[in-house]
Amino acid sequence: MRGATKTAGGKLRVYLNEYNIPLDKTAYLPLATGMLQAYARTRPEINENYQFMPIWYKQDHPDSIFKHFDNPSIAAFSVSTWNEQLCLHTAKRVKARFPECLIVFGGPHVPFDATAYFKMRPFVDVSVRGEGERAFVDVLTRFLESGDFQGIPGISYRHPETGECVWNAADQPKLSGDDLDIFPSPYLTGIFDPLMSKGLGWQAIIETNRGCPFPCSFCFWGQGGLNTRFKFFGLDRLREEIEWCGKHQIQYLFCADSNFGMFDRDKEIAQMLVQTKAKYGYPERFRVNYGKNTNDKIYEVAKLLHQHKLEKSITLSLQSLDEQALISSRRKNIKISAFMDLQKRYSKDDIPTYTELILGLPGETYQSWVDGLEECLRLGIKNNIFIYLGQILPNTEMSNPEYVQRHGMVTARIPLNEGHAAIRPPDIVAEFENVIIGTNTMPREDWIKSAVFSWVVQAFVGLKLGFYILIYLAERHQVKYIDFLRHMVHLEMRPGVGQIMREELSKFNRLAAEIAGGRPRTVVMKDFGDIYWEPEEALFFDISSEKRRFYEELLQIAEDYLQGNGISYDADELREVFEYQSAKVRQFWPLESRDLFFKRNIPEYFENYFSAEKTTITVSPQVLRVKESMNFDGDKKRFAREVVLHGRKGVGLLNDIEWNNVCSAGTLS
Q1: Which sequence spans correspond to the domains of the chain?
Q2: How far is CA 342 from the centre of its chain?
Q3: Percent helix, strand and coil across the chain, each to the nearest 5
Q4: Which residues contact 546 (CB under 8 A, 6 or more apart)?
């Protein structure tokens, strides 16, 4: 392995690779490899003997990436779900062309037990588990001295004679709680300065701490991160990093903490962000994963971020509401009392919230899943819902073969076309994800039913296609949210009703079956933009093209449900509810009329539904006016970008309206 070609200055070339997902004219700065380089440069012997070449920071055509390599001595790859195959493809090609080059793999998608990994990938020389900074420095140092990696904590390596995988059992020594500052910031040490001239709208990732005490079976943080206790970066360093992001006009800043808001200092960090945005106008958005069961702290932090438009919507994650699924996945949810308390607070302050759920956890059944969705909606219909297909990730308890067998887990390896990412060109290496499509308690057929139902819930609640209708049916006629949705999902049993919805459900059922057979989970709709869309978003776009007909048919479906269940109703009142729902849903074509007249106070009823001035429905004429700014003039791509892409987690999904009472003479009061 020794003897790789040196540069003219007598140094060995190091190539760091972190292929991040391409976004719409933006890219993520490569934090993981930036941290490796920043720490390695603190060692004089490394600076004297190595030259770090420009970091390759995005997914690209393999030929373009390979041309980047010129006599490499070390090629290191940060491997995640979204870039594993491209890393493997590039590493194999580099090894074939430069056999003396040391290939180092690290990141969450590299198995900690690398024995099988090395057998299948003979071009990988070293793999790193857990935090990589110190292990990478040890590898660089040992490569200079002897090329013998025996005893380096936290790595596996290929034996130079037998080619077998050697697993160094010891992990890197634990750091104390405030020792993370031994790792210099790539932002503050100039690592990313060469990238800032690329003309991209950069997005950035920041860590304020590392660690997670929660042992969820599906998650890398607690199970595979080797960090069950927290360690922290210093506040002075974080202040400087946030300032750097403001000066460099970073639009979107993602916080890679597992439980932001759990600690008193998190509010101080939020205040740093507020001050920096006030000073520079950036970052525009700050996205975090909030902690659990610390409602007072999280509320104060989230409120501060929302008040300054740094956070569009606040996460209140549950993952599942079924006790057996939670036990099987070792998930301890936020207490329902804390969940409801936070919802009430956020609703009072008009702060949007959303809940994340995972479909396919062991122990979940179709019935428990549907019941859980009803419970989630009952806890707060205003709270948005995001449902993710369960995945099996390396280095988690769920990836353990014994765990898989015990729970009868069945997976499908499907192409990874990430929602809202740029459509992958056909000549780019395909990536894959392993989604759960069946368990002992949720066989494949029930998983398909659950997926279809989930997309319908997200379309009607999350994307607001039936938001006010569901509220009305529950409030006025005591109809469970899921009962009406389930009636609609089984439209094939009632011929002649709801042709549009019938066609959409057919698409959903076909898509779910095809996902189980290996197709991607996202949808391409190029009229609405050159990115991947989620299935429920595709439904939203389809309906936006036929909105009037859709709500006429949906009214028939509602009448069919009410009549079939012996529920008496006022037909005129129900029709006006549907007219209000239709008026609130945004459309890409110009409005025919901005004014809509009601015999009842339907606009007032819904506009005040979540306020202290909640009213009842009465015969009281009102006029609703849609504000003029809601016109997209037929521009589907702008409509998709502003309404769905930017508005889904906020308030941009619905038309802004104003309403007035109508006096007996027909004039506005």
Answers
A1: 12-21+29-167, 202-311
A2: 21
A3: 40, 15, 45
A4: 500
Write out the H or E segment, with its range, that includes residue 469: helix 467-477
211 contacts 230 by C-beta, under 8 angstroms = yes
Tokens encoding 93: 């090609």
Percent of the chain with pLDDT strictly greater than 70 = 95
What is the pLDDT, as a whole number, of residue 665? 46
Task: Please give the DSSP secondary-structure letter assigned to residue 458.
Answer: I
In degrees, rounded to 5, the angle at the alpha carbon of residue 535 between the alpha carbons of residues 529 and 537 is: 50
| Predicted pLDDT at 177 | 62
- Residue ranges of the chain with per-residue pLDDT less than 70: 1-9, 24, 177-178, 222-228, 292-294, 492-493, 628-630, 650-651, 664-669
User: How is domain 12-21+29-167 classified at the architecture level of CATH?
Assistant: 3-Layer(aba) Sandwich (3.40)
Q: Which amino acid is at 665?
A: A
Q: In 3D, which of 17, 178, 11, 204 has the Cα closest to residue 92?
A: 17
What pLDDT is attached to residue 382? 83
Which residue has tokens 């521009």? 635
SS3 of 512-558: HHHHHCCCCCCEECHHHCCEEECHHHHHHHHHHCCHHHHHHHHHHHH
The pLDDT of residue 527: 95
How confident is the model at residue 664, as a pLDDT? 54
CATH of domain 202-311: 3.30.750.210
Model confidence, pTM: 0.91
